[in-house]
Amino acid sequence: MRKERDYNSLYQSQAVCRKPSKRKVRETLKGWGVIGPIIIYFAIFGLYPVGVMIYNSFFAKAGFFKYEFTGFSNYLEFFSDPEYYVLLLNTLLIAVFTIGLSLVLGMLVALLITGPIRGKGAYRTIYYVPVIISMAVVSQIVRVWLDYNHGAFNNIVELISGKRIEWTESTFWMYFWIIVICIWKGLGATVILFVAGLTGIPQEIHEAAEVDGAAGAVKFFKITLPQLRHMLVFVMITSIIGAFNVFEPVQLISGGGPDETTEVILFKIYNEAFQNGDRGMASAISVIVFIILMVLTILNMKFGEEKQEKL
Asked: How far is the C-alpha of 176 from the C-alpha of 167, rounded, in Å?
């Protein structure tokens, strides 16, 4: 009997220990209260649209508001039609120039405004202002400036050379203006991120390098850049995603021309979905772009980890 009572008391004490306290329950409920709305928001506006996009990609247009299941036919058409490879090349061309110049210019500006100058806060605000301006508004303004007869740019060119330029009829100039707009629009965000990374580098590291006789260029490539590797990876990933989302300048300035030479992947998705009414093909292209961006992001992060291990 005594042994039985001992076992019962031991079991009851263990049950009491296993019973969660009211404080722990309250903390758990508070945690779910904070993260729950975020999970719901992500599920509604993130997971659900992706699921619908993947589902629609297996259907093809069969009539007015009619679709039929065709399996992977949209994907096969994408990879068998040279037109879509041209779209990817156009997008990559804009992405390479935009990302490369944005990183270089963003780093230079960040180094300048983190140096010993007055009014650093004002400069940071000035460079960030373009980020909050709508790309559609900027594209419309540039389109007016590029007008052949009354555009501001042609008025200036005429004063200098006496001859106006058909901006929209030149593939080179259309690429030039699209890239310039994208760089100008996103430079502020890149500068702010690099400024945050530069100010986070301990000053003692630079002081130790100066004591060892490190010059400006050596200090930048051997100390500053390695310390910024995580920020560089983050900026690279966001820049790649942003470059694949170029749409407004192409739609409002070049219209994909001349002769569809500046047509990019997102512009094609828009045309397939809203101009041609083929949401199946538009969804298939979106899925392919989604996979490409995921692969590029993973490779970028992997490259950053390898660089960190080497250092």
From this structure: 10
Beta strands in the chain (DSSP E): 59-63, 66-69
pLDDT for 28-52, tens place per residue?
777 788 888 888 888 888 888 888 8
**Residue 27 and residue 93 share a domain:** no
Q: Specify if 232 maps to a domain.
A: yes
Give the chain's length: 311
pLDDT category at 5 given cuts 50, 70, 90 is: low
Q: Is 67 inside a domain boundary?
A: no
Given a contact cutoff of 8 angstroms between Cβ atoms, the answer to whether 263 and 249 are in contact is no
> Residues 229-272: pLDDT tens digits?
888 888 888 888 888 888 888 888 888 878 888 888 888 888 88
Integer Cα distance of 106 and 127 in angstroms: 10
* pLDDT band at residue 10 under the 50/70/90 scheme: very low
User: What's the Rg (C-alpha) of the chain?
Assistant: 28
Contact 157, 164 (CB under 8 A): yes
Q: Are residues 230 and 290 in the same domain?
A: yes
Tokens of 248: 């407004």
How many domains is the chain partitioned into structurally?
2
Please tell me the number of Cα atoms within 13 Å of 143 on its side-chain side: 14
Torsion angle of C-alpha atoms 161, 163, 167, 172, degrees rounded to 10: -60
